[in-house]
Amino acid sequence: MAVRLPRPHRIDVYIAVAGLLGGLLLWGLDLSTRTARDGIVVLEGRWWILLPLVVTVGCEALRRTMPRAAVLAGWAALTLDTITQGNLVTVVMFTDLVYAAVLYGPPATARRVPWIAGLATVAFTVVPLGAFRKPDALLIGLVVGLVALMPAMTGWIVRNHRDAAEAARLRAEQTALLSEMDRAQAVASERARMARELHDMVANHLSAIAIHSTAALSLDDPGTSRQALGVIRENSVEGLAEMRRLIGILRDDSGDTEPAAAPTLDGLGALVEGARTNGLDVTLDADHAEALPAPVELAAYRIVQECLTNALKHAGPGRVTVALRQSDGSLDIGVTSSYGRRDGPGAPGSGAGLVGMRERATLLGGTFEAGPTVDPASREAKVWAVRVTLPVTEGEPA
Prior knowledge:
It is built from ten helices and five strands, in the order ααααααααβαββαββ. It is an alpha+beta fold. The chain folds into two domains: 10-173, no CATH class; 263-398, 2-Layer Sandwich (Heat Shock Protein 90), CATH 3.30.565. It is rod-shaped, with a radius of gyration of 44 Å.
């Protein structure tokens, strides 16, 4: 199988063509770097100058795609050029090959070439000086330093700056990506919070409206219908007021820019009384300290509110019990209601209430359980029980 060489970069081809034309121009004008009288020319004749020139031109075309092979072949061509009359363009192109090997080569090559060039500079400075015992011998080391060490160090500096710029670009992209992820997460969290608030604030009133309107339509009793319409009106007015307060939080130009105060456990009595007005037989047993963190009070209030809403929509006939106990740095909430088919009209549910209660408990580092269980009082009938534990120590919420 034939091995295909990588395609040269367009700029490298331009550099190679320019080097070839410049070298041919110097060759045509008979401008060489040495003469036969210098004593170091082994291959006499002007045609020998073209061989290292052509090899170096070919290496220039591969300076970016095959930098290590190009600099090795260029070194061989430069060695051959030193025993001919020489061409200045060949030397200049070799310096570019050293620079390209450090800049475009693998990391190992980029590290080794400056060291090799430095050792060669030292060797060609010390050895000729020791051999000839003349200060003029230092010029050999100077030329080697200009041809090999200087382009190698230039390539190393440029490569370091390029790598630093690339690392900074990657860090900027990573920072932008993390910022976008944080923004998306914040938006999602805020949307989930608003969804919970909207559900908890309005679902209770809408459920009562749905149940009592169904009762008013299904029962042919003027007294019952009038009572149901009164409950419907009361819940619709309260629900509309809460919706306006919620919209006032979201919109500055709504006319009601002051957000409603967050409900606390002190409002559980009014909440239970409203549930009784809607037809639930509710008992409240609350035993908790007066000073609780605001997030805990809000979560506990909303959880009890959602439990009463679910009982109004789904619970069978029977008593609903609400119990709150604070002990060992946590607030325990327990709500039970009868579990079974209800006699009167019900309201459809979406399951968002259970999801919202679980989210509220999880955000505070608490636990949430809900499901049917045996009534501890009768040990026969089944009840729907919701058990929530919320830590009340400041700083614990997740």
